[in-house]
């Protein structure tokens, strides 16, 4: 009989932490709920023993934006400071996302048109930064991770964003890997390197894949509704 065991990260709500009502800087009316990622020991893929806490953060119950715990202090500042902080976080998120998406797309030396479209669609979501993101995309497409540039973007995100936001970056970036329907071993290893660069344990890989599957299901549902 084979015994299958391992570890994985699971998200939990911190029940004894007050909800920050109607305070989301992104949608302006969602409430921020304190959550954490905890690493669990799994037996036959079932979490059985809680291990260490990977990160605590706040997540909007409406738009699902995620913030590190410093948002509680930031919300006490002026409206201008809150907006400036949100703008900086969005910029860091977008740069890390486009750099990682492009790097993932070229890692197998076969940059498909479908992958290019995914990246261009992502860039369109950040209109105020479009030219800057296009420049990052072209630079990584030509130079890959020269001078550690992709990991520098991820390290900047690590210093400013929550673990949930980082996993969302990697899950969205990983969409380009599914253009051919499979994730190769070298691509899986790259995602694990990205997790480490973001200060997250490589065991969070399964959490990343779960996020990716959720995105696929959401896309499928939208297609079925149209």
Labels describing this entry:
single chain, about 230 residues, alpha+beta, four-stranded antiparallel beta sheet, 4 strands, globular, disordered C terminus
* Class of secondary structure makeup: alpha+beta
- The secondary-structure element order is EEEEHHHHHHHH
Give the proportion of residues in helices: 40-55%
Radius of gyration equals 18 Å
> Can you tell me the residue ranges where pLDDT is under 50 for at least 5 consecutive residues?
217-226
Mean pLDDT: 84
Question: Beta-strand percentage?
Answer: 15-25%
Shape, per Cα inertia axes: globular
Largest pleated sheet: 4 strands, antiparallel
Number of E-state strands: 4
State the strand order across the main sheet. 1-2-3-4
The overall number of domains is 1
What's the N-to-C terminus distance? 48 Å
Tell me the number of helical segments per DSSP (H or I, 4 or more residues long): 8
Domain Zinc-ribbon: 24-84
Organism: Aquimarina aggregata
Protein name: Zinc-ribbon 15 domain-containing protein
Domain Co-chaperone DjlA N-terminal: 95-203
Give structural notes.
- This protein has 226 residues and is α+β, with helices and mostly antiparallel strands.
- The chain has one domain (5-225).
- 51% of the residues lie in helices and 17% in strands.
- The chain has helices at 71-74, 79-106, 113-124, 130-143, 149-160, 163-174, 185-197, 205-225, and strands spanning 5-13, 32-43, 46-60, 66-68.
- A 4-stranded antiparallel β-sheet has the order 1-2-3-4.
- Strand 2 and strand 3 form a beta hairpin.
- Helix 2 runs parallel beside helix 6 (163-174) and helix 3 runs antiparallel to helix 4.
- The radius of gyration is 18 Å and the shape is globular.
- The termini are far apart.
- It comes from Aquimarina aggregata.
- Residues 24-84 form the Zinc-ribbon domain.
- This is Zinc-ribbon 15 domain-containing protein.
- Residues 95-203 form the Co-chaperone DjlA N-terminal domain.
- It holds the Pfam family Zn_ribbon_15.
């Amino acid at each position: 009989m084979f015994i299958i065991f391992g570890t994985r990260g699971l998200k939990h709500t911190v029940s004894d932490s007050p909800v920050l009502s109607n305070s989301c800087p992104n949608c302006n009316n969602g409430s921020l709920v304190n959550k954490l990622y905890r690493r669990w020991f799994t037996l036959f893929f079932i979490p059985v023993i809680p291990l260490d806490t990977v990160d605590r953060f706040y997540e909007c119950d409406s738009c699902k934006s995620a913030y590190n715990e410093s948002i509680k202090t930031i919300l006490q500042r002026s409206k201008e400071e809150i907006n400036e902080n949100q703008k900086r976080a969005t910029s860091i998120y977008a740069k890390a996302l486009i750099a990682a998406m492009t790097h993932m797309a070229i890692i197998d030396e076969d940059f498909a048109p479908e992958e290019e479209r995914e990246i261009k669609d992502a860039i369109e979501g950040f209109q105020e930064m479009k030219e800057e993101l296009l420049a990052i995309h072209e630079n990584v497409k030509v130079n890959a991770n020269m001078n550690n540039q992709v990991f520098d973007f991820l390290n900047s995100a690590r210093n400013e964003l929550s673990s949930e936001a980082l996993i969302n970056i990697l899950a969205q970036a990983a969409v380009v890997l599914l253009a051919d329907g499979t994730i190769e071993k070298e691509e899986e290893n790259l995602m694990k390197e990205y997790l480490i660069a973001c200060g997250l344990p490589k065991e969070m890989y399964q959490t990343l894949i779960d996020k990716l599957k959720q995105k696929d299901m959401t896309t499928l549902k939208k297609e079925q509704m149209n």
